[in-house]
């Protein structure tokens, strides 16, 4: 019998719930529904955040364990600005039942990630998704013409810190938090960063990432536009990192990145047009490949 089970067996329990939230940028938050802070595992679980949670629903099999956390928005804990900026999207969540008189006596109850977040009336509601959630997503490789890897990941193997494929610059001009303009950045070809990433290094939006929609020159000015405007203020002088983009084509992998050995697509796979191809009048049939161009 564990210490926790022995505590339950006394008939008079001293239990509190504790949650740890680990954002993808490394920031950790601790919350408890006890009336005093609790500390274990190097995390202080605050009691003044007004955070509560519904009971965790779990089942055998592959159904998704889920719960919901609720709390008041405050500058001392989770802020509306951070939620709006997307800093809690996909954050890791862990939950325990703890004997508040002896925090070493505890049991682990839940592990997962934050799903949908909504705000209303000065409070937030966060859907908690269990570890079986990824099983609802497609797994394995897809047989397709373009590359299935993400530039710079383990499958791609390309180092974006290679000279000429990333640069750190200060923001010079900004429109609607999505169109960045630079007046002296001609060292890269037009569209070099298209489909790449824009990472904010300093300022209020530090740690946020945007996907680049367009990279072009308008006169002597270079404009880099992201698909979705940042939801946190970015000021002139803030440092950002621009990373080269990849359109996942066979030729791009070979000519732009010299990374053909790691290409994860199937450029010779027949397309839909091959399935419905018909004989052509006057054409000579020699038994060659009907491979379409990519």
Structural class: mainly beta
- The CATH topology annotation of the largest domain reads as Thrombin, subunit H
| Shape designation | extended
Please write the string of helix (H) and strand (E) elements: HEEEEEEHEEEEEEEEEEHH
Name the CATH architecture of the largest domain: Beta Barrel
N-end to C-end Cα span = 64 Å
Mean pLDDT: 82
Order of adjacent strands in the largest pleated sheet: 2-1-7-8-9-6-5
Strand content: 25-35%
Query: With helices defined by DSSP (H or I, 4 residues minimum), what is the helix count?
Result: 4
In total, how many domains does the architecture comprise? 2
Profile the largest sheet: 7 strands, antiparallel
- The gyration radius over C-alpha positions equals 26 Å
CATH classification, class level of the largest domain: Mainly Beta
Helix coverage percent: under 10%
Instruction: List low-pLDDT spans.
Output: none
Count of individual beta strands: 16
Short summary of the structure?
The protein has 294 residues and is mainly beta. The protein has 2 domains: 3-136, Thrombin, subunit H, CATH 2.40.10; 166-243, Elongation Factor Tu (Ef-tu), domain 3 (Beta Barrel). It has helices at residues 3-9, 80-85, 250-255, 272-275, and strands at 15-22, 28-32, 38-40, 43-45, 52-53, 66-72, 92-99, 106-120, 123-130, 166-170, 173-175, 179-182, 197-200, 209-218, 221-226, 239-243.
């Amino acid at each position: 019998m564990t210490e926790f089970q022995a505590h339950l067996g006394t008939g008079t329990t001293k239990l509190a719930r504790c949650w740890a939230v680990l954002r993808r940028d490394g920031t950790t938050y601790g919350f408890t529904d006890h009336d005093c802070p609790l500390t274990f595992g190097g995390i202080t679980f605050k009691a003044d955040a007004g955070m509560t949670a519904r009971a965790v629903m779990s089942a055998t099999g592959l159904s998704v364990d889920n719960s919901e956390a609720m709390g008041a928005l405050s500058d001392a804990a989770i802020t509306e600005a951070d939620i709006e900026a997307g800093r809690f999207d996909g954050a890791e969540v862990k939950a325990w039942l703890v004997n508040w008189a002896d925090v070493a006596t505890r049991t682990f109850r839940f592990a997962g990630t934050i799903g949908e977040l909504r705000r209303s009336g000065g409070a937030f509601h966060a859907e908690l998704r269990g570890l079986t959630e990824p099983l609802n997503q497609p797994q394995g490789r897809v047989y397709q013409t373009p590359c299935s890897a993400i530039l710079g990941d383990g499958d791609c193997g390309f180092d974006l810190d290679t000279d000429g494929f990333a640069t750190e610059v200060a923001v010079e001009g900004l429109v609607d938090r999505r169109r960045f303009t630079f007046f002296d950045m001609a060292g890269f070809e037009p569209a070099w960063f298209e489909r790449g990433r824009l990472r904010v290094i300093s300022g209020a939006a530090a740690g946020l990432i945007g996907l680049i929609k367009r990279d072009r020159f308008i006169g002597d000015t270079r404009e880099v536009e992201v698909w979705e405007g940042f939801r946190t203020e970015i000021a002139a002088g803030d440092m950002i990192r621009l990373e080269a983009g990849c359109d996942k084509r066979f030729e791009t992998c070979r000519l732009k990145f010299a990374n053909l050995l790691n290409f994860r697509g199937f450029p010779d796979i027949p397309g839909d047009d091959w399935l419905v191809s018909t004989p052509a009048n006057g054409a000579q049939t020699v038994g060659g490949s009907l491979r379409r161009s990519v």
